[in-house]
Amino acid sequence: MNEFLQAFVSLLAITNPIIAAPLFLGIVAGMPVAVKRRAAGQAAMAVLAILAGAAIGGRYILELFGISLDAFRTAGGLVIILVGLEMLRGSPSEMQRDEASPEDARDRIVVPFAMPLVAGPGAITTAITLSVAYPSRLYLPVIALFASVATAVVLWLVLRLALVRQRLATPRVERIFTRFMGLILVAIGFQIGMLGIRDFFGLGGA
How far is residue 68's CA from residue 41's CA, in Å, rounded to a whole number? Predict the structure, then answer.
């Protein structure tokens, strides 16, 4: 359960649904209410597909390029730390600051909203890192997949709430949430990175 919570919080922090909500509202502006609701579901499903695909196929990509799991775990932990430090400064990632034009809104639900605004390189790296950090006896990275599903569900709920209450994501809430999630990301990234270093150099205790 603790591993699932860590994986879930990592993905939730880096996708940052509250920050994504106003971007979504800008994309769907002017659409009928029913279309907006469907768009929220489409966005969540697209994010789930991206994260789950990264979690499932990431390990095989590493093997293709000859990268060890421990090395990628260490590098992935560092990436998570850097993203968390940026969020601690009270600002979303560079791609999350891009304006989302309502032109061709239906296409923009997937690109650029689902990817790269929500499930960008940081989130994809996190999904791969989680699949490596929390392996399963099964052939599938169960923890990373469940965390991806939970993240997509939260994103869908936040987007639906944002449609009902347009002022849900106020600037003050955005700043507080971003900094808090940034701190959580730094801690989780540090833990994942240190585990990778320990295993890479064989420093684990007997």
Answer: 36
Q: What is the pLDDT of residues 98-151, one digit of tens each?
A: 444 444 566 778 877 888 778 877 788 889 888 888 777 666 789 999 999 999
Written as six digits, the tokens of 94 are: 């560079």
pLDDT, tens only, 160-194: 998 887 655 566 766 776 688 778 878 878 887 88
CA separation for the pair 36, 28 (Å, rounded): 6
Alpha carbon separation from 51 to 114, 142, 166 (Å, rounded):
10, 13, 27
CA distance from start to end of the chain: 25
Q: Give the predicted TM-score (pTM) of the model.
A: 0.70
Residues 6+ apart with CB under 8 A from 7: 130, 133, 134, 143, 144, 146, 147
Q: How far apart, in whole angstroms, are the C-alpha atoms of residue 12 and residue 90?
A: 17
Residue 124 CA to residue 55 CA, distance in Å, equals 8
